Amino acid sequence: MAIVAQSSKTRRIRRATLAWIVGLLFFYPIFWLVLTSFKTDADAVKPEHLLFFTPTLENYLNMTENYDYWRFATNSIITSVFATIFALAVGIPCAYAMAFNPSRATKDVLMWMLSTKMLPAAAVLYPMTFLTKSLGLFDTHFMIIVVLMLINLPIVIWMLFTYFKEIPKEIIEAGQMDGVNTWGEIKEILIPLAWGGIASTALLCFIFCWNEAYWTVRLTTTDAATLSKLIEGNRAPEGLFFGRLSAVSAAAVGPIVVLGWFCQKQLVQGLTFGAVK
Q1: What confidence category does residue 46 fall into, taking pLDDT thresholds of 50, 70 and 90?
Q2: Rounded-to-integer distance, Cα 140 and Cα 219, Å
Q3: Which CATH number is associated with domain 70-273?
Q4: Minimal CB count within 10 Å: which of 20, 60, 109, 182?
């Protein structure tokens, strides 16, 4: 028994050590990013100043005073929030229809939607740019919101479909026998039962929208520019300003890190256990 207990203890120690190593590997880029944000551009490229340097707030002050950080952050919040809301508004009815009223083409439709994520964004860059400029929608919040919604809609529908499939169909049928209409089924039955899955889907969609850089950089200039555009703006012909770039990047990922920290319980619960078990 003592040998078995010792072997179990050793196994737990090895797993904990491996978990710490993996955690540190994932944390190191964030640590390096934050550390570099407190360096000058000159110190950021000097190997001897990797850990030992004189901290400065110059990059953060420059970001807020000269680059109008709050305007870019506000644009990121507006586009991410509304794109998530619209994606859920479209995704919930679609996932409901496919989960509780499936047809022979349901699986094919789901695969087709997922296949749209395999299309390289660069392949449609020119038609998207031409279309937005022709319609006068280039560098507008509306266009960015629509693009972000459409980009993430397949993932939203797939996730919601998975959660909804775990809800017993008999519950929906009982509501129908009581005279509840389709909207009532979604509002009064489906959403409360699948709230954990919907919240997890909304959180992931918001993160994807916030982190989207390709389209927000190429379809905006000033009015609807997000934090991705601000980060891209710290590139010049003479090179990258690593100090300022790190400060802007840290300020961009900070809100998402905080949000994920406070919502980690709901996120893990929704992704692990689904809607109803």
Answers
A1: confident
A2: 8
A3: 1.10.3720.10
A4: 20
